[in-house]
Amino acid sequence: MKAHPWQSMIEGLLEAIILVDPIQLRIVAANQAIHQLLQVGSSSLLGKGVIELAVAPEDVFFWEDVAAGLSENIHSETMLKRADGSIVQVERRVTLIRTGVDSSVYVVAINDHSNQRRVENELEKLIAELRATLESTADGILVTDLDGAIRSYNHLFAELWGLPDELLTQRDDGAIYAWMDACMHDASQYEERLGTISRSPLMEATDVLTLRSGKTLERVTLPQYARGRPIGRVYSYRDITQRLADEARLRLAAKVFESSTDAIFITDAEQKIVTTNPSFERLSSYTEQEMLGKTPRDFFSEEGNAVQVENLLKELDNLGFWEGELWNRRKNGHAYLCMISLVKVQDEFGAALNYIGFFKDRTETHTAKQRIEELAFLDVLTGLPNRLLLEERIRQAITISSRNNSTFSLLFLDLDHFKQINDSLGHPFGDRVLQQVTERLKKCIRQVDTAARLGGDEFVLLLHEANAEGAEICARRVLEELSAPFSLDGMHFTVTASIGIALYPEDGISMADLIKNADSAMYHVKERGRSDFRFYQRQMNIGLLSRMKLDHAMRQALEHQRFRLHYQPQVELATGKMLGVEALLRWTDKDLGEVSPVQFIPVAEESGVIVPIGNWVIQTAIKQAALWNRDGKSMRVAINVSALQFQQANFVDSIAAALHEHALQPHCIELELTESILIKDVEDALKKLESLAALGVKLAIDDFGTGYSSLSYLKRFPIYKLKIDRSFVGDLPVDESDVAIVTAIIHLAHALKLRVIAEGVETDRQREFLQQRQCDEMQGYLFSQAMSADELEQRYLR
Ligand SMILES: Nc1nc2c(ncn2[C@@H]2O[C@@H]3COP(=O)(O)O[C@H]4[C@@H](O)[C@H](n5cnc6c(=O)[nH]c(N)nc65)O[C@@H]4COP(=O)(O)O[C@H]3[C@H]2O)c(=O)[nH]1
């Protein structure tokens, strides 16, 4: 084929060129560049239909339009297919060139764009990567040009500054900057600083921005360079609000750690100590250096507490927490009690990260607690165990004794007339007396025994494994020890005590019973004149409750005049003539029935109600005596007087007043006093007795022989008569010792020029015996029981 005339011309062009015949649409010339572009052999394109090269539909449509005379030119990007089938991006321009009047040719000029495309693709990819990077940074990024015009920013920037959507879409830089200004706490300072930055294109700066919202942002700005020249600026913003708060918290925690008065140590996950605070060293004397690498096990383990430490570490691992007390040792070996809290710090999966231990010295608190406990169990004044501790010891004694089948004794001790010491010399003096008494009591017991103070002047001695004999020996020792004179502030005085004894198990198997029974035995000692001891006997057993009931009933009886007096004749033995009567109290209670004076008089004495009852007896008996002694008749009435009644300051006056009121001759009245009354307060008793004697009232000693029977008072006191107790009369004349006693009393009385009367005479043999021994008078069922005044009058006075 003949070469196209333009062949050589197109050969010299850089562009790939093909010439196409407009009628046949075949390639009539093609330069080397197109052959290279399509990677085909030279001249191989000549004669080919141009449409064969078309890949894009656009080209196919164009050449079809050309064929139909509809189109002549086209210029756009398109694709061509190479020989190997690969596609190449090109820019192609098709121009129809008129070569003559009726000849023309299509010039197809093709530029290879595949390189440019690749570069563009690369750039696009780069930009996409950059954008992704921008978005994925943890900071908010703003990029501006040198004039401050915003070139780009990421989402985080918008988020940090809280930019509203409309600002994001508007792309109004002024509005965005205004928004940022408005967010600032100190907008003017912010703007000033921003101005400085924008005026210095090379400046690098880091600032902290405080926003009105409370947020704190850190702003780092760096110049952006292109080809070595600054072209703009990148601002990166980071929200450091949390970080600052964390730092502040950390600083605080560090301060707490450093200044805490609690000792603190922190371990790693393997429980090796990594740090300790100053208090740790203060408390344990171990330095941090010495503790590094040690474990809590090393630190807390002590001889004997290994199991406890192992258990607490186990609990710490299981529960994440342990709190409790443990004895520990300082470096110098001194023991101290620690209050410890251990905490396991875990990650979100429960694995241990650290262990923290807090502890403080509880020794002082412990000692104080011990002291408080001691105080709770000790009597402050004497240092003796108090009631609580005594009760505890008695409980122990009961347990041991019941197990060993052994015995123990309880001595209930009450000082006699201690109230007088307190009242006259003051409580502080009384307290010192109690302290001295305590010292003496301690001397009387063994180390295993307990001396306790219940309060006031009441003490209890608990004697382990002591039977009746042991208790008696101790009781005597106490009385003996106390009998030595006391000396305080230059004063000398004696203190006596009344002691009641209860034995385990005979007198009670419970603590309450034992104390109650020892107490009741003690009361009996008091009744019988004090300064003695006595064992509990069952008949004493008018329990406290019944005592209270009885007391109440007596007060009621007194108020409602339910007491009566019966009179028992007293007869002259020689003549059988009734010389007088003894007034005896009678009481029939609506619930209790007839209550014997043997039962209720001791209770009345204990509670003090004997005083009004005794007054009533005196009034009634004197009134009755006055009736019987009318018209020159002579009838003596003997009245029982109890100790408490006699001790009343107005006792003598009340007798004198009653005599006066009923116009009775004093010699018609005989007062029966027990021996205990006389020895109680000798001087006072003497004074009263002398006053009564001076009045003309007769005085008799009741129950003579059962008490002290001291000859000295018989001599000193103005006594008129002795009354032989009926316990000596009952077995007369069989019992030799009673015979001897009664004989001796009668002789004694007569030797002292006193009259003598025997009570409880029930048989003729007794009467005969007494008559033989020249007893003056007798009283008893043999002659008559006690009876009402009416009955007596009917029987004997008509
Ligand atoms: N087994 C027997 N007993 C006889 C016989 N003859 C009299 N008695 C009883 O012996 C007691 C004598 O009185 P006491 O020794 O003064 O003993 C009295 C006295 O200590 C006290 N008491 C009675 N009345 C009063 C009173 O008005 N005031 C005071 N303070 N005590 C009184 O109560 C005690 C008992 O009084 P009572 O039960 O009335 O008992 C009376 C009397 O009933 C006898 O032949 N055989």
UniProtKB/TrEMBL annotation:
Domain PAS, chain residue ranges per copy: 126-171, 249-319
Domain PAC: 322-374
Ranges where the EAL domain occurs: 547-798
SMART domains xref list: EAL, GGDEF, PAC, PAS
Domain GGDEF as annotated: residue spans: 406-538
Transmembrane feature ranges: none
Protein name per Swiss-Prot or TrEMBL: EAL domain-containing protein
